[in-house]
Write a structure and sequence with these properties.
By secondary structure, this protein is α+β, with helices and mostly antiparallel strands. The chain has seven helices and 16 strands. The protein has two domains: 114 residues, D-amino Acid Aminotransferase, Chain A, domain 1; 156 residues, D-amino Acid Aminotransferase, Chain A, domain 2, CATH 3.20.10.10. The strands form two sheets. Strands 7, 8, 9, 10, 11, 12, 13, 14, 15 and 16 form a ten-stranded mixed beta sheet that branches. Helix 6 crosses helix 7.
Amino acid sequence: MNVFYVDGEYLSENQAAISVKDIGILRGYSVFDFLRTYCRRPFYLEDHVARLANSAKLLNLALPCKQSELIDITIKTLDHNKDLDEANIRLVITGGISADSITPTNKTKLLVMVTNVHNCPAEWYRDGAAIITTNDERYIPNAKSTNYIPGILALSRARQQGAIESIYVDRYGRLLEGTTTNFFAVMGNKVVTPGISILPGITRKVVLKLIAKEFDIEIRDIHRDEMRLMDEVFLTASNKEVVPVVRLDDLIVSNGKPGKHTRRIMQLFADYTRDYGQSKG
């Protein structure tokens, strides 16, 4: 049984709970972050905690403790789950209990949930995946909130069409990000990715750093009309790593197979995460 941290206590998963009066439940007023381990070393934990703190700031949610304490609590929660070879870690800050069920107080709640890593299907990486676009934009895109209704609906539409992800397209026709991923396109030897109105992905940041010596990088707006010009497409995310895309809406990308540049980027990231886990610090 996994052990979670809930507002000062380490509890078994079946005992972990928060009040039904918490406005994180009643109003969706909460933020979260998500990461995984490599060789049980949390991947860029400090960066994820800093992003969580920024999400809370953008939504005017009080941090329940200092960032250094968040890091310490996360590591201790992981230590309570020694039976897991690798772990997913979800950090959640909820709005807490409100007297009128809507007005925030400074009594926010912290949850740290450690669970087993569930690997994505191998065929995504071997054969490539399909994605679609959806006309929508996230509210306060720099904040990772639990308000996922648009994302859930967009992802449901994607799955109905045999796709694994849906990419938001804003009112100006710009491709932004997926419901849980960042978007990249390869055009020639140039890797292009959006830079505004998106959540700053940690995996995205690592990938950009890793490929800087081998590829030209453009961080800019990508218009929907450019989809036909894309030689390759791939997604990044903590739980998906680097996923090659071979179909975008009705367009076939990379002759229907993962492209050589995407393959190279996948290898660079795999090598880096292996070394990251083994270094232990």
